Amino acid sequence: MKILVTVKQVPDTSGKVAVNPDGTLNRASMQTIINPDDMNAIEAALTLKDELGCKVVAVTMGPFAAETMLRELMAMGVDESVLISGREFGGSDTYATSQIVAAGLDTYGIDEDDIILCGRQAIDGDTAQVGPQIAEKLHLPQVTYASEIKKEGNTLFIKRELEDGYMTVKVQTPCVITCVKELNTPRYMTVLGTEECYDKPMIVYDYPALQNHALIEPDTIGLKGSPTNIFKSFTPPQKGVGQMLEGDGKATTDKLAGILAAKHII
Amino acid sequence: MILDAKHTLQQKLFREFAETEFTKELQEKLDLEGEFDWDIFHKMAKYGFTGIKIPKEYGGSGSDYLTYCLMIEELARVDCVLSVYANTSNSLGGGPLVIAGSEEQKAKYLPPIAKGEKIMVFALTEPGAGSDAGGTTTTAVQDGDDFILNGRKTFISGAPVADWCLVFAKTDPTAKGSRGISMFIVDMKLPGVSCGAHENKMGINGYPTSDVILEDVRVSKDCLVGPLHKGFSIAMKTLDGGRLGMAAQAVGVAQACLDESIKYAKERKQFGKPIADFQGISFMITDMATEIAAARELVYNAANLKDANMDATTACSMAKYFAAEVANRCAYKAVQIHGGYGYIKEYKVERLYRDARITSIYEGTSQIQQVVISGNLLKK
Questions:
Q1: What phi and psi values does residue B230 have, to the nearest 5 degrees?
Q2: Is residue A248 part of a domain?
Q3: Which residues of B253-269 are buried (b: 16+ CB within 10 A; e: fewer)?
Q4: Would the CB atoms of A191 and B10 count as touching at under 8 Å?
Q5: Beta strands of chain A (E only): which ranges?
Q6: Domain span at residue A40?
Q7: CA-to-CA separations, A191 to A198, A234, A235, B111, B204, in angstroms, rounded
Q8: Neighboring chain B residues of A191 at a CB cutoff of 8 Å
Q9: Is A191 helix (H, G, I), strand (E, B) or coil?
Q10: What ipTM score was computed for the predicted complex, to two decimals?
Q11: Full strand arrangement of the beta sheet holding A2-7
């Protein structure tokens, strides 16, 4: 049994977002982080690994600089990683990305008792489409918005977090699950992990490695082949965040006075 | 110095951990109450912080000195005392065993120390033997297969929470100065071992310090670390690495002073503009940043020398001497920039000012570092 986790390096939206003339992100000029929801998927995989002793593989599509992210994940406990990287893949939208990643996953190998975990969505595009599209392309069952995962044999019990409540779904492996942040709190790397992560295997699939896969349609990959074109990218203006104080009257007012004094308002 | 990919990743780990786990509430609790916090200690141990300088075969990660320095610096940047939590096992606690312990001693003591299950502390200083460790009066007298220890050790960091203590005692009363001193592992639960009152310190509160009193304490000869009468040279070798860690700690404290000062200088307005706009303030910040950059280079360079197995004694002392003095100067400036608010406990620089003060005192005062450096320069 193994767990394949799809991950993405995304721009740190707490910094300045830079955009290319074609509307795509200028990733080279921005600080990158691991997509937060993907970290929850990684933690879910590592938790299952702690329980069951299975292998965890991180899979990403991106430039070679994404190796930094993969090494970090391996320092957390991921056993192996796959980097899908090629100029031909650049600028892909979700439709194109999902067929490339699905081809990468299939090339690596998906067994009967395997699980594919994805983050719910990436903070750069916020589409939440790639996970479900991967499932469709691989003809696997999918369960989205998982906030709890339990495994009994080849059956998984998934608690889905929906806007108006919860839904528990039973699903057979192999399957695709997308994870929400409520699922867990991601662990840190370990010091030993940072020492050993550079010795763990990282497989690279370039375009020639995947071009003959049945899922790859050469006309529908990359920027030119993507059905979606980005019209405009921008950072929406931030709304000021309020702070709620809780407690009884005196303590709360004292605290409020302290905060106002610290900000030199009073 | 530009860090390579591995060290950059490790720096990220230490920074993220400290910024997330060392909450303001935890920092204030430690400073106010002075009690050891086992939860954060065990969490640090879980991620391998307590075993960083302990070899892999004994449960550590066998990391290099640069990694060790990055850890201490990043932890100290958020809370100085919590960098001490991660330091002891890698430095004065585990270090002497790594340097001079027998195979049996390493196998028995290092794994639980690396995993944070047990705490080993280092007891060299005595009421009358501080910088002059040669003045040790604690004695160990051989009695068959055992040694009987008597004496009093003072300012022993971590003693009240320790499971074991490395005690330096005179085994050859005829030998003068630092000669004739041996090192013993003493179980803190043995009859005759007791701790004095917790010292009420100026800073680094939350890591209790006390005397260790030894009254007819019987230890087996298996507890002798390294050759008989040669304990002092092991202590000096250990202190080399220890100084480097404390130098990194001083850089972390100094950096925290700078971080707080920049933040405050941009926020605080006087005469209608942020005080950062005044040269009197901005030049203090410039001096802090420049000195910190220089101190950091000295620390990383000394770490590199140690990692290359080159003679690093002078380099470690230079790093400790300079970084500790920089930490003190930066703490002074940080409080000065904060003005009256810097004198109030609500602001972090008040604690930084107190924490910085220890860096030029423990593990060799600045003046002892000057003695080491000048001695090495002039003996050639």
A1: -110, 20
A2: no
A3: bbbbbbbbbbebbeebe
A4: yes
A5: 2-7, 9-11, 32-34, 55-61, 80-84, 115-119, 142-152, 155-162, 165-172, 175-179, 202-205
A6: 2-225
A7: 13, 38, 36, 15, 25
A8: 10, 13, 47-49, 51-52, 61, 63, 67, 71
A9: helix
A10: 0.91
A11: A165-172, A155-162, A142-152, A175-179, A115-119, A2-7, A55-61, A80-84, A202-205
Eight-state DSSP code of residue B140: E
Which residue in chain A has the smallest CA separation from B55? A192
| CA–CA gap between residue A186 and residue B125 (Å, rounded) | 43
CA distances (Å), origin A266, targets A255, A258, A260, A261, B27? 13, 9, 6, 5, 26
Q: Are A141 and A176 in contact (CB under 8 A)?
A: yes
Does a structural domain hold residue A249? no
Residues B214 and B301 in one domain: no
Structural domain span for residue B270: 233-378
Q: Is residue A260 part of a domain?
A: no
Strand A142-152 to strand A175-179: parallel, antiparallel, or no bridges (unpaired)? parallel
Structural domains in chain A (count) = 1
CA B158 from chain centre, in angstroms, equals: 11
| Contact between chains at B13 and A262 (C-beta distance less than 8 A) | no
**How distant is the Cα of A198 from the closest Cα of chain B, in angstroms?**
8
User: Is A265's Cβ below 8 Å from some Cβ in B?
Assistant: no
Whole-model pTM: value is 0.89
Q: Please name the residue that has the structure tokens 């903070």.
A: A123
Q: How many domains does chain B have?
A: 3
Count of other CB atoms within 10 angstroms of residue B339: 13
What is the residue-level pLDDT of chain A in tens, covering all 266 positions? 999 999 998 878 766 677 777 776 676 777 888 889 899 999 999 999 999 899 999 999 988 989 999 999 999 999 999 999 988 888 777 888 889 899 999 999 999 999 999 998 877 767 778 888 898 999 999 999 999 999 888 899 999 998 888 999 999 989 999 999 998 999 999 999 999 999 999 999 999 998 888 888 878 777 777 788 777 777 677 767 778 888 878 888 888 888 888 888 88
**Whether residue B238 sits in one domain with residue B224:** no
Whether B133 and B247 map to the same domain: the answer is: no
Shared domain for B242 and B361, answered yes or no, is yes
